Each structure stands twice: as C-alpha cells, then as structure tokens.
Amino acid sequence: MTRRDGIGAAGIAVTAAGVLANLLAYVVPVLGARLLTAADLSALATLLAMTAIAGVASTGLQIAVAVHRARLGPSPATRSAVLTVAVTAGALLAALPVAVLVLRLPALATVLAGVSTIGVVAAGRWLGEMQGDQRFLPLAAGLAILAGGRYGGVVAGLALDAGLTGSLLIGAATAILVLPVLHVLARRPGVVPVGSPVAARAVLTAGTATLAMLVVSYADLLLARRFLPFDASGAYAVGTVLTKGALWAPQVVTVLALPRLAQGNARTLRLALALVGASGLVLTAAAAAGGGLAFRLAGGPDYASLGRYAPVFAATGALYGLVFVLINAQVAASARWPSGPLWIVTAGFVAVAWLALPHTLAGIAFGALGAAAAALTGTTVLVGLRLRRAVIDRQPERGTLSIG
C-alpha cells in the first residue's frame, strides 16, 4: 500500500525544495549578469530558455507517471522513460545546429547545454514515481538533488570564473551524476510494479502540454534575442527573472495537487487556483512597489533604471502560473489536446511581434503580457467546457438514484 506523506510536512518540504531550485536557477543569470559580458549573458539566458523548453520532456514524463500511479498504483515505466530520453536526444541533435546558426550561439556551449538536458529528462521517471505515490518528502529531496545537478554546477563554474563554456561543462557533468542518486531515492523495497505500463501517448500528451506552456512563456525572451541589440536583450533577460519568479514561486501547489486532480477532486482545482492567484497578486504588487530594487537584485545596479517595467514582467509570470495549474488539471483529467490554446497564442504572439510590436524592451514586454492574458482566457474556457460536460454526464445518473 502506498504511504502518503502528511500534507503539512509535504508542503513545507516541497516548498523548500522549490525555493532551492528557483534560487539556484536565479543565481545563474544573476551571477552571469555580473561576471559575463552582455553577449555571453544573452547567450546563457537563451540557452537556459532553450534547455528549459527541451526539458519539458522530463516534466511530461513525470506528470504522466505520477497521474498513472495515482490512479492505478505502481506500474512499469522503464519503456516510456527510455523512449522519452531517446526522442529528446534525437530532437536535440536536429535542433541545436539550427539554433547555433539562427540565434548566433556558441557551438560547444550549446552542445553542453544539450547534454545537461538529457540528464534532466531522464530524472522525470523517478520524480513521477514519488509524486504519484504521494511520497512528497522523498520527492522534495529528489527535486533538491536534481536542482543541484542542473544548476549547481553552472553556479560553481560561474563563481570560479570558468566562463560560459566552462560553467556549462561543469553543469552537464553534475546533471548526469545525480541520476543514480534519484534512482536509489525512488526505490521502494518489496513493491513490484504490477499494473499496466505507462502509455507513451500519456507522456506525449503531458509533454506536449508542458512544452506549449514553456514555449509561450519563453517566447518573449527568444524574440528579444532575435530583435533587440545585445545590451537590450541582456537587460530583457534580467526582467524575465521576475517573470519566472512569479510563475514558479507557487509551483508547490501544483505538485501537491496533481495526484488528487488525477483522482477527479474538483475542490483541489479551486483551491489550487485560489492559492496561485493570491501568490501572483502579492508578487506583482511587490514588483510595482519596489521595481528598481527588484531589477537591482536580479541583475545589479546597472539595471535598476528599468524598475518601471518590473510589474509588467511579474504580472506576466503570475498569469502563466494560473495557466500552468489549468493545464495540469486538463492533463490529469486525460483531456484531449489540452495544449491547443497555447499553441494558438504562441503563433499569434510571434506574428504580432514580427509584424506590429515595437522592437523595444517595452514593446516585447507588453506583448508578452497580452499573450499571457490570452493564454489564460483560452485555457479557462477549455476547462470550463470540460467541467460543464462532466456535470451533464452525471445528471442522468443522479436522476436514477433519486427515483430509486
């Protein structure tokens, strides 16, 4: 029988792991802003965005395994994990050379970022097993260990003044070395997977939804790299630290809620949206009150003058935080094409940025805020339609019970 960790201790532990992961993720661009040239900082931010997008295969694998285990108990996942890693590696082999040419990225640094991504993707299988079993304390340890491997090496490299390529080399090594530790952490002696295996289609659906989420939320950073001068795109990268802070600060809510969402708990969805929305409001208000300080903390005193844009970046992240909850709810409910609205918004945002938006920091930032609002509207409509259909489907059953 699955042992479920207490929700209070679990929340504290997962929150602490999330804080550590986000802290390490933020330290990378913060150190980069102080120790790298503007060109290398922009390249680092772009590579982090690209690897985050490619790394959604890890999140897709984790979500699919977690949802499957929450519903059916311990189930085989090796085949789906191997297939996910193989597909990701093939996609990186095809995409990275194009990225080097189009985005003017250093070739070796780009390859090393790809190696690190493979390690992160492989980790998703073991994280999903712990999450689906609601073993949140080991999951918190696993998240912290993975964060150390994913970002800790890069932070160490930057602190040692190893430069862009040297830092990414250390990061690639640490991302691979943590995998055996996660495997041991996820093991449950005496428990044999007996259920149906995790379907590759479930991984694809979850991965596609998460990919759409990250593509739309990182599109502005990539557009800034494409359309702005190096110094302006570097400044925009500092602003996106605030966006990602508002997006990922309440991620513990989604982590804890996912297994219960997979079991059809509607109250959990309402509570998750309320908590994430409140977090977004607080962070956006804080950014509005102390924008200059926020930019100073994120990138140093050279960027403090951009503080007037801080609430725009924070509000964008806050809206995407709500979208992330709704997308996970759709995946947990086995909805078809949950990522549809996000792909539409992404295409529209790119087209508008290419043809109409001013190619300035403010122009792209406000365009990103509009895209976030559109994404939230589309996913809310989709979830509302699904819930309405669920109510209609249950009505005949209720009628039968009341007559009997």
From TrEMBL:
Per the UniProt record, which residue ranges are transmembrane? 7-31, 43-68, 80-101, 107-127, 139-160, 166-186, 198-216, 236-259, 271-297, 309-328, 340-357, 363-385
Q: Which UniProt keywords apply?
A: Membrane, Transmembrane, Transmembrane helix
The keyword Transcription is assigned to this record: no
Q: Indicate what this protein is called per its UniProt record.
A: O-antigen/teichoic acid export membrane protein
